[in-house]
């Protein structure tokens, strides 16, 4: 039996940041990982996705210049791009493992399963620790329909050696909308089938509709209000997708992008006395589970806060501080969310939809893409909706536009630190930059 101060189950962002902090403070720390070290974001999520999105984003920017200086759109050579993805992404896992071992962290390969309140087993070896952190993340959901075993998931898409001629995405959430944009730019015929009546719920309804319209203009087909009921593959390797509403689609590749579910199977949560539900592991305001020696961090938590890399990192760092003696409950600052569609969508703080139901809040839209100072980029759709409270403080914002991700980051300190107009006007920002122009515009509406 090996003893540790802290064992993290998982090695993604919800684990390794906190593990590193604790190890540097002299604690004996181990990470247990059954797949690739560094977890989803690094190996099968954000990093790989944004790399493959790069040329699609460039092409999208070039489209703004059609008729005003550029006529041709280059083609994406997918196999070359995929080779570059492997060159950049594949070494990251071993690189992180080496970095963590320099800090004295043991990395144990295999599946962890609790066998009791303070013990777990990996490959028949029992490990004991004072504290455990469950940071096992999520995995793709699987539709419960005939033919579900034929469907592909996000990890497989990010490994495609050739871009299929046609792809159907089931679901119109983050993954479908981001990957559909990439696949279309790489030449595939793309269809998105969504159960609800709109895509990208969680983002401003009007702006997400504009993204859908933009994607339709680029040749992507959408069908809303359709529940996929059956998938089959014929002898020519062509898929047939059918919906309960009677629609049929043919495609070379079909993706199940209907969400993600917590990795809590065969984890021995009952043996450890850890409560859970279908949203994940239940925690209190200290990220402690129903077993006081076991914490949970990242995507695996049953939580309302967005399941994103920065929130996983924040939670793991919080747990490290807590295990080093801090006694405060976790307090989240505002969390910006971005859909890396083309154009991009961003959301931070109170949403426009929630603000509409609260008479103390005011919504102010600035169609900044049409302002003279932004005309140089011809990104005419770029807009921001501000949510402002009774004290004339910024409490939320929704954005659409190619530079929305960078602009939303600039708004994070404005909201968290309750900046006034004077705070913003008292600073000098670089010019011409998006945030440098938008921040003073926003300041005009603040106290
Ligand atoms: C395609 C895709 C794109 C994304 N894009 C973005 C983005 O652009 N921006 C963003 O902020 N977020 C993005 N996300 C979400 C982001 O990846 C997650 O929020 C983040 O990875 C969560 O980190 P985590 O450490 O909680 O979980 P993970 O990174 O999933 O790590 C959990 C680890 O635990 C391991 N594990 C599970 N069970 C066991 C067990 N029993 N024993 C041992 N090991 C186990 C798993 O193998 C995994 O490596 C994306 C996700 C996907 C799928
Ligand atoms: N940019 C980012 O930050 C980013 C990118 C990708 C993924 N992620 C993370 O991954 C998570 C999962 O993403 P996702 O896109 O898989 O899920 P999602 O929850 O964003 O979207 C799933 C969609 O599938 C639809 N759906 C469900 N069942 C259906 C059915 N039977 N037929 C048709 N449609 C159906 C839902 O209505 C929903 O719109 C996100 O919530 C987020 O935490 C984040």
UniProtKB/TrEMBL annotation:
Record-linked InterPro entries: FAD/NAD-bd_sf, FAD/NAD-binding_dom, FAD/NAD-linked_Rdtase_dimer_sf, Pyr_nuc-diS_OxRdtase, Pyr_nucl-diS_OxRdtase_dimer
Domain of life of the organism encoding this protein: Bacteria
Domain Pyridine nucleotide-disulphide oxidoreductase dimerisation: 335-435
The FAD/NAD(P)-binding domain, residue ranges: 4-313
Gene3D superfamilies: 3.30.390.30, FAD/NAD(P)-binding domain (3.50.50.60)
Cofactor list: FAD
Keyword field contains Flavoprotein: yes
Keywords: FAD, Flavoprotein
Keyword Transferase: no
Similarity section: Belongs to the class-I pyridine nucleotide-disulfide oxidoreductase family.
Xref: PANTHER family: GLUTATHIONE REDUCTASE (NADPH), MERCURIC REDUCTASE
Protein name: NAD(P)/FAD-dependent oxidoreductase
Organism: Leuconostoc pseudomesenteroides
